[in-house]
Amino acid sequence: MKLIPRIESIMIKRREEGFTIEGEKVSQTSLARELGVRKQQVSLWSRGGALPRPDTLFHMASILNVRPDELYEFIPPTEEERLENIRNFEEKEKEDLLRRKQKKTEELEKLGLTEEQIHFQLRQLGLLKYDEERV
C-alpha cells in the first residue's frame, strides 16, 4: 500500500491556470503561509516524507480547490503485502496475549490460587486462546 503525493503537480497546474493564494502565485511558501506551517513541512508532504494531519489535508484541499483525495494517489496493497500485514498483526496479537497471560498468572500465583483456579481465571479472561490451538 502506498500514498503517492500529488501536491506538487496540483500546485504546478494551479500556477499554470493563474490561480493565486491571497494574491501570490501558488508555491510551497504561499501554501505554507496560508496553512500556518513552515515551507519545509509542505516540501516534506510533497515528497511523501510525511503526511499532513487530516484537518490540514482538508484545509490544503480547500485552498487548492481540489478534493482531499486528489492530493494523494492511493495504491492498494498487493495480495502479498495484505497477507504479510495479517501475519504481522496475528504475531503481535499472540505476543501480547501471551505477555498478558504470563502477567496475570504471576498475579494469581501471588494470591495463592491453585493451578486449577488460575486456569479457570485465565479461561474467563480469554487468555488461553493459543494454548487451546495446540490441543
Automatic annotation (TrEMBL):
SUPFAM superfamilies per record: lambda repressor-like DNA-binding domains
Xref: InterPro entries: Cro/C1-type_HTH (IPR001387), Lambda_DNA-bd_dom_sf (IPR010982)
All copies of domain HTH cro/C1-type, residue ranges: 25-71
Keyword Coiled coil: yes
Record keywords, A-Z: Coiled coil
Domain of life: Bacteria
UniProt xrefs under CDD domains: HTH_XRE (cd00093)
PROSITE patterns (UniProt xref): HTH_CROC1
Coiled-coil residues: 80-114
GO molecular function: DNA binding
Cleaved signal peptide residues: none
Official protein name in the record: Helix-turn-helix transcriptional regulator
